[in-house]
Specification:
The chain is an alpha+beta fold. The protein is built from three helices and five strands. Helix 1 (37-47) crosses helix 2.
């Protein structure tokens, strides 16, 4: 996983936000997963197409955390979500080219 990796919620995952946390339900495995406030922010930013690097930079600013610490935490969470089948890699739209 790199800073340019973009992820989105898997098709068989249901997401529900509740104040400062969230619950994910994987319909295939029927397992529930909880996200704290920071995990919820990561999920929200993933859903609008932010890259891992963009998410880490935003969290670093929002929570006053060192950039490297934020990046490590975001990558760790994203790898865990990917391993559990809760997210899938998404391909960003190609940039238009000038002919």
């Amino acid at each position: 996983m790199t800073e340019t990796t973009r992820l989105s919620g898997a098709a068989d995952v249901v997401f529900t936000a509740m104040e400062d946390e969230a619950v994910l339900l994987h319909l295939g495995t029927r397992k529930y997963y909880g996200l704290n406030e920071t995990g919820l922010r990561v999920w929200q930013m993933m859903q609008v197409g932010a890259s891992v690097g963009d998410i880490a930079a935003n969290l670093s600013a929002e929570y006053d955390v060192e950039g490297d610490d934020a990046r490590e935490a975001v990558i760790s969470l994203c790898e865990e979500l990917l391993a559990e089948g809760l997210v899938t890699p998404s391909t960003p739209e190609p940039e238009p080219t000038e002919d």
